[in-house]
Amino acid sequence: MGKVAIITDSNSGITLKEGESLGVRVVPMPFYIDGKLYYEDIDLTQEQFYELLTSGADIKTSMPIIGELTAMWDELLKTWDELVYIPMSSGLSGSCQAAAMMARDYPYHGKVHVVDNQRISVTQRQSVIDAIELARNGRSGSDIKMILEENKFQSSIYIMLDTLYYLKKGGRITPAAAAIGTVLGLKPVLQIQGEKLDAFAKARNVKSAKRIMIEQMKKDFTGRFHSPQGSTMHLEIAYTKDLVTAEEFREQVVCNFPGMDIVMQPLSLSVSCHIGPGALALACSKQIGY
Question: What pTM value is reported for the model?
């Protein structure tokens, strides 16, 4: 059976340096900031991004440039028999569909397998880890794509926002709703249960929002995933900018899910630009057999 290379994009939270250590190629996501093109983790760091975001810069997300992506495929296919590309969820970006269209044509058909498994950030990262292990165990590119897509809804993400400003700025809520929420001090909790970012709950404060996320995750473990003790689950925390608050939240999560390993990573910048700094996310994904 041929060798299989794994590719993802920086929405997974995997940096170029970490990708090298994992043996994974990472496509840096492009952003247009005040009309200038930047690439995540190349000439745009997390610190620079939040400095520009909070200073009012005009930030627009963009799909990977197709020519740059296919150039990477061409390079890798010189030494690898098959490629598995795991981009961000098709429900959050058109980059997955664009890559899938390219993969159907010569010379990529049957060699490049684009995975659409509705993942983003830490859950997307886990899909990459799963793909690495599946490849190590001799699975073909088509097998890996099939397994990841079969398990695409076996994950949950709950995200607490610190501010409604960026949702209002992006047109995702009305200015009036944002104003009311700000006056009342509400902390919205959003969810990603597959394709899109949706509303889940409104909390009165940060403490309440954290409690809502933890309690809902417990319900998901028991109800959706049939794993009350979390023995078949991966548990993850993501955050925007505020590492100190994320570490405090991690301690609370550890107390509620004793014995579980917890991965903690910065939230994808493609999501962060729509929700702003100070956000916290609690996520899980179900273990798959290798």
Answer: 0.91
